[in-house]
Hints:
Blueprint: H1 16-23, H2 33-42, H3 61-71, H4 84-87, H5 133-136, H6 138-142, H7 151-170, H8 180-195, H9 204-216, H10 220-225, H11 229-236, E1 255-256, H12 270-279, H13 295-309, H14 311-314, E2 318-319, H15 341-349, H16 373-384
Antiparallel strand pairs: 1-2
Helix pairs in contact: 2-9, 3-8, 7-8, 11-16, 12-13, 15-16
Binding site for heme c 1: 84, 87-88
Domain Cytochrome c: 226-387
Binding site for heme c 2: 241, 244-245
Amino acid sequence: xxxxxxxxxxxxxxxxxxxxxxxxxxxxxxxxxxxxxxxxxxxxxxxxxxxxxxxxxxxxxxxxxxxxxxxxxxxxxxxxxxxxxxxxxxxxxxxxxxxxxxxxxxxxxxxxxxxxxxxxxxxxxxxxxxxxxxxxxxxxxxxxxxxxxxxxxxxxxxxxxxxxxxxxxxxxxxxxxxxxxxxxxxxxxxxxxxxxxxxxxxxxxxxxxxxxxxxxxxxxxxxxxxxxxxxxxxxxxxxxxxxxxxxxxxxxxxxxxxxxxxxxxxxxxxxxxxxxxxxxxxxxxxxxxxxxxxxxxxxxxxxxxxxxxxxxxxxxxxxxxxxxxxxxxxxxxxxxxxxxxxxxxxxxxxxxxxxxxxxxxxxxxxxxxxxxxxxxxxxxxxxxxxxxxxx
Length: 391
Ligand code: HEC
Ligand code: HEC
């Protein structure tokens, strides 16, 4: 990686942690050497999500085509009126309401995230209760509040409308797939093959970051005159956003309790979601996985260990969502309680909700920020530039 040639910056750069914790005052030159390295990581999302060896059809074109048809098929649902696409538009747009409507007028418990770029995630759902994108799809299919379906309904629909393409891929007909759980796993694998193809990996933001980094090599004056200067500086320093929203996906793929108001039964988030996921027959180490002993299975064992020792970190914690394409997914947070990006910034500015309005303990990073109006506007603008055009 190219080293910054910045004579005016002390090369003994502060550590990122120290810096983000406020160890360095605003008079220090932005970006520091370490911040520059983090900036370089922000704008380099690969065009294809990482390989998933637990689904051997993940990158199969026939599977993606059938997955697309199934994603839009309301007849997979128990009520006949709800498809995946009812809550997740194929163009990445989600419903504009906090909760979405499933079968028989039921409302979902949480706000639907976008399926765009979904397979860049390491864990799925707000609380991480699915570990692979194909097994994630089984949850809404069988959830009584969402598609209220089961293997019998799904198998019958496959036989009725997709028998030959299903057989082409799996080597047997839906009826010959006698194990109902295998039918569900197979449909999940088709859904993943489709979802892996709907990505938006570049946005005006990426151009801005590239230009900003180029300015670093010219002069500090050029850096400070750059239109993205205040937004990026606030994102890294006063806002502390880059502590969690970092890397090319703008997520650390970890879970944090940031103090979002939630008094529902499932408010404990990751802490109650993990054990069922570890015990689940559909997980990466389970009987439907096409790579039961690979890296994904190893990671499950690591999570099992965390569960025993990290209760405080996991209770009320939710996955750091990507900020890419954020304009498409409002309202925000797992509850969908914040309507606009301006409300999100106000939420962070006040340091989240006070104790008692959510389960568990807020992470230490979330504190009152005292942002100025200009800093807030710059952050909102920065977030707005993170949405790309379809590719
Ligand atoms: C009734 C609305 C509804 C339907 C129908 C629905 N979803 Fe969802 N989806 C949601 C909600 C709500 C969440 C978040 C749930 C949670 O985290 O607790 C979600 C989460 C997801 C995620 C997780 C994304 C991430 O980043 O973690 C994916 C992927 C997804 N759904 C795909 C699908 C697929 C595939 C189907 C069809 C089999 C489907 N959904 C059907 C509402 C719906
Ligand atoms: C300690 C880690 C952490 C820090 C610091 C942090 N975030 Fe987040 N962010 C999260 C988590 C976790 C969520 C989801 C929380 C939930 O729904 O309960 C989230 C949610 C969001 C969302 C809503 C996304 C969606 O799809 O609903 C936005 C926008 C956002 N953060 C922007 C920011 C900005 C801007 C900053 C800096 C001012 C910031 N975050 C700082 C972890 C963090």
